[in-house]
Amino acid sequence: MRLGILVALLSWSSFAHAEHAPPQSNVPLSNRIVRYNIDATYDPKTHTLEATEILTYKNQTAQPLSVFPFHLYLNGFQPNSSFTREAHRDYRNEEWKSSYLGSIEIKKLEVVGQGDLTSRLQFVAPDDHNPDDRTVAQVQLPRAIAAGESVEFRIQFHDKFPEVVARTGYKGTFMMGAQWFPKVGVWWHGSWNCHQFHETTEFFADFGVFDVKLTLPQDQIVGATGVKTLSVNNPNGTTTLAFHAEDVHDFAWTADPRYRVFDDTFNGSSGPVHIRTLMQPENAAHGPRYNAIAKRTMELFDRWYGPYPYHELTIVDPATLRAGGMEYPTLITADTAWFLPDSLLLTETVVVHEFGHQYWYAMVATNEFEEAWLDEGINTYTEIKTLDTLYGKDHSLINGKRITWGDAQEQHYSYEKSPRFDPITRYAYQFASERSYGDITYGKTACALLTLESLIGEQTMQRALRTWFQRYRFTHPSGAEFLKTIEEVSGRDLGWYFNQAIYGTEVLDYEVSSAASWPANWYDDRKPSSNYHSEVVIHRKGEFILPVEVEIKFDDGSHLREYWDGKDRWTRFSYDKKARLLSAEVDPDRKVWLDVDLFNNSRLAGFSSGDARRKLANYWMTFWQLIAQAMGWMA
Ligand SMILES: [Zn+2]
To answer: Cβ contacts of residue 218 below 8 Å, gap of 6+?
Structure first.
């Protein structure tokens, strides 16, 4: 998800074409633990859906399984669910409307060969024991499923979609069908991983094959995960569409009779990808803008990390921001507004961010409940690399004639507000607040990876991410494996860095605490000296230890670089020269993005008394931080 920058500034509130490429490959890319066959009918008048789901689960664990948990995410949209409680804690002034109620009910659950087990379904709340939370239900089978054996669940369910609160539901004629079907948990690290739905958590599911039939009125323009394989008009005024998706772990769809469709093609290293962009009519002018940035991003990811192996990418311009900036396999939702000028790169940023998720969330598929940083954090880092490459480091968010603002600066601004609360590795639903979750998971991880890049080199970092993607796509790797990959590719022991930056809450803050010159013969007022003594003191204000560079400049134009290992709390540099000290600056190349306070990194030298406390740089950042204050963050 993209936590909405600029949100406060932006109060924004075709047609069936020929079927596309056949199923992508006869060789499975993933272990295909699950197979979902869903037949659903959606009624846009009541925002309800009736469906049957046949889930075939292959037990690829080494042991028999007799308990199966299912996510029932739509039950998060109830007043006493853990999701709503947590959201109310963080946003107590937000209004609550009855239209925000959503639910999913399993009307029947049958296990082939074991009978109707509906009455055995039990709601469980493994994370917080909230007895009113109904977002996870589990069933105990009378007979265990042996290792290597498959089990077939036949489920009938009913959805009542909310007016969009977060990600899923309707707004006017717009409909986003996300997290809408009973989804089995993941057997991971020796036990079921099936967390409740929380305000700050996203998702985790096994790879497989989806065949989904959607029946809905004929005027609806539909987009969905996967490839459309069938479109049939029924006598009662409805259409039945069928979608097929392989080696994905979720299925989302959208419908709106108002969509304007913009088709395009990206020719990648694994063949052509059909891009289908569904625009709200009032934003239709931005359709080509979406497609252009999508193709440029896909080209960079293809070159940097590896191929996008699917035939389809659907980009959805939602009717509400609450459904915007979200990722699903082969389908992303964006954000734009008709009045956005070309120089404000919000439209582009969201597409870059959500497409990036196709690599991290959708293919590497880490556990977003427990290690959200591996998705959102790595993705924010690659978002910065993409935008910086396309628009220039300091222009990648705002690229105006007079005003510029880079994505790394934006992420740093987010991180510097909450550095002390939570480590990057905190489970997503256990952060101190949603604010801390966003600032750390996105902002701090991005700053930590940018700082790491300065230690091991940009090319090495890119190779490490490529290795991470190529080695672990279609698996569910952990954070430890990510860090190990970086150490392996860089050939460096980086535990000292990871312990502070990734696992710790140590704050990194270096300052020039004093910089001064005085005449070497200060005691002799009869004869001014042309020799000067100069001293600079660098202070490590935080607990985070990192080697830093210091640039020392003199008034004769000479300058030099000092290196400090940062191990002590402070260090002093002294000079005797025929020139006066002009300035001192820690991290002059702006490589240490983890430094929480960039204002104290530089100082103009005082002469004699050393009292002239002025900042060398960054004065303009004050202005920008005020502007950025007005910006929210995206999910
Ligand atoms: Zn995201």
So the answer is: 233, 237, 238, 239
Which amino acid makes up residue 381?
A: Y
Provide the 8-state DSSP code for 508: B
Q: What separation in Å is there between the alpha carbon of 331 and the centre of ligand 1?
A: 13
Q: Rounded to the nearest 5°, which phi and psi values hold at 362?
A: -80, -30
Cα 138 to middle of ligand 1, angstroms: 29
The pLDDT value recorded for residue 336 is 78
Band (91; pLDDT cuts 50, 70, 90): confident
Any idea which of 253-267, 594-608, 612-626 has the lowest mean pLDDT?
A: 612-626
Ligand 1 centroid to 360 CA: how many Å?
10
Report the C-alpha gap between 434 and 91 in whole angstroms.
9
Greatest CA separation found in the chain? 107
> Lowest-confidence range among 23-27, 36-40, 484-488?
23-27
> Tell me, what's the pLDDT at 323?
87
CA angle in degrees (0–180, nearest 5) for 108-113-118? 20
Measure the CA–CA gap between 131 and 480, rounded to whole angstroms: 34
How many whole angstroms from 502 Cα to the centroid of ligand 1? 19
C-alpha–C-alpha distance, residues 325 and 3, integer Å: 7
Q: Residues 401-437: pLDDT tens digits?
A: 888 889 999 999 999 988 889 999 999 999 999 999 9
Instruction: Report CA(518)–ligand 1 centroid distance (Å).
Output: 53
Q: Report the residue count for the chain.
A: 635
- Please give the average per-residue pLDDT across 246-259, as a whole number: 98
Name the nearest CA neighbour of 545 among 562, 560, 529, 564: 564
Domains and CATH numbers, the chain: 2-276 (2.60.40.1730), 378-501 (1.10.390.10), 510-612 (2.60.40)
How far does the centroid of ligand 1 lie from the alpha carbon of residue 368, in Å? 11
632 CA to centre of ligand 1 in angstroms? 14
Q: What does the DSSP 8-state code read for residue 402?
A: S
Written as one letter, the residue type at 445 is: T
Other residues' Cβ atoms within 10 Å of the Cβ of residue 123: 16
Give residue 153 CA to ligand 1 midpoint distance, Å.
Answer: 32
> Which residues make up the environment of ion ligand 1, defined by Cβ < 5 Å?
1-2, 376
* Distance between Cα 46 and ligand 1 center (Å): 30
Question: What is the whole-number distance in angstroms between the Cα of residue 375 and the centre of ligand 1?
Answer: 7
Give the distance (Å) from ligand 1 centre to CA of residue 2: 4
User: What's the CA-to-centroid distance between 635 and ligand 1, angstroms?
Assistant: 5
Query: How far, in Å, is the centroid of ligand 1 from the Cα of 47?
Result: 27
